[in-house]
Design a protein that fits this description.
Strands 1-2-3-6-4-5 form a six-stranded mixed beta sheet, with helices on one face. 32% of the residues are buried. A hairpin with a 2-residue loop joins strand 2 and strand 3. The chain is globular, with a radius of gyration of 14 Å. It has a single domain, classed as 60s Ribosomal Protein L30, Chain: A. The protein starts with a strand and ends with a strand. It contains two helices and six strands. By secondary structure, the protein is of the alpha+beta class. Belongs to the RutC family.
Amino acid sequence: MKKIISTTKAPAPIGPYNQAILSGNTLYTSGQIAINPMTGELVLDSIKSETKQVMENMKEVLAAAEMTFENVVKTCIFISDMNTFSEINTVYGEYFNEETAPARETVEVANLPKFVNVEISMIAIK
């Protein structure tokens, strides 16, 4: 059985999908981009501020499922320019304990929704 996870503390979906789905004890999140949920505006000041907004959005989605970053077992990071990887990785790393960090892949793509620079999705287990 699947349970829809939704919170107003993260951006509302902009298409036919949900912020996350809880199936059993596994949470599958949709990708988050740097939309400020309070204003609906993109946060594109810098790659670091953009990544921080993405991670804060993801933090709220996890919280809506009564989870934290410690529950995350897998992340997928999509970036528009591999040259920004180091800065993205620095911000991303602030949210995880290095010893218990999840598995991950980082992929450079041609374009992302709304032409942002970074999108992150996660899988977490209770």
